[in-house]
Amino acid sequence: MDTLRFELSSASFTSAVAATSLHSHSRHFFSSLQLGRVGSSSPAITSVARTTVNEICTADELHYVPVPNSDWRLALWRYLPSPKAPKRNHPLLLLSGIGTNAVTYDLSPECSFARFMSGSGFDTWILELRGAGLSSLSVDTNLEKPGGTLSSNNQQRIVSNLLENFISVSERLENVLDGGSKILGMQDRLSKRARDFKQRLELIPHYNWDFDTYLEEDVPSAMDYVRTQTKSKDGKLLAVGHSMGGILLYALLSRCGFKGMDSGLAAVATLASTFDYSSSGTLLKYLLPMKEPAQAINLPIMPIDTMLAMVHPLMCRPPYALSWLTANISAPQMMDPEVIEKLVLNSLSTVPVKLLLQLTTTVDHGGLRDRTGTFCYKDHISKTNVPILALAGDWDIICPPDAVYDTVKLIPEHLATFKVLGSPGGPHYGHQDLISGRSAPNEVYPLITRFLQQHDEI
């Protein structure tokens, strides 16, 4: 396989910023990396400023994996197992949520799930799906390619207008909140973010994938690569997925069960994930009204990274006009403000509306469907033969416990373990708290470790 492999010096690591592309850093490569083979590439859409690779990747190694029949190369962050820990039989693959990158699993030294697992002896790999983090377009990609004409220009104009309108609303809000004194300094920040984003508008035609693309192309490519690199005796992997990452793992098990194929997984842990939100009180239901307008105006992408970075001061600083957004991420007192800030500013990516539209089927009756609308994933999860640990947060308003259980109850009983984290007197767990909350290293990480140890035997 034509791959790129980079080994980073652990002495120069910081846990500062994340997520921009190879091409953005090409002039820094040779001073900061030990190279197997290098090629530059075009940037992924992201709102993070250019910086050197060792300031971005906090792992021990950074690997690149080309996806067959695609212009994308996926980034894999590798955390080597501690030599002091027990030797494990299977590597561990981590999948993150929609529009997020590897940083979500390594937000701070105190709450780093990736480092905890490697410290427990697991050869730990975090996959950055196409468009996220350090995953990037091939050097040979023609940026004028697909559609590079009137349709492409219209898509760029639509997204540009969306951002301009967002900036206008945000500026008016700032004037109301601080009486025009510019204490929040949002207008300058908004204008800079918009300028940075507009420089990457030519990449919009390449943001044309959906959930099934991840499932059929990205995840198998990453699994094959990790399997080749680690050479486990039975060729299987352990896997953990948060939010959409867990849905991807469920979908893989469902597809393989339906086809009577081996999934290549020894055991799976999902955090705040489900196929079907329809019977729960999920906040995601309020996003459904956006579906038809997005289709009507042919909106190609949703720059959630840029938009949340713009409003971040209103979430985390006085007068806290948008502090309610933080409650969607974390339960009160569970994440330090600087950790939330890093999550918002450094871990998010732009996503295709095509992906969002397929994921809206999770709030419809019957749950997630494939892109044709004919395959209902939850109908076949009962055919899996892989042990599953499913965790939910008691204060998660995105994926409430009842939504998680809606999928768990379909898994063969002897294979499923379900647990809700949180207690009446606290601590409580919101959507992100299961991997980044201050209590997670003591309550959640050991739970997952014990489960994976149980199923690591060959």
Automatic annotation (TrEMBL):
It comes from Arabidopsis arenosa. This is AB hydrolase-1 domain-containing protein. SUPFAM superfamilies: alpha/beta-Hydrolases. InterPro entries: AB_hydrolase_fold, UCP031088_abhydr.
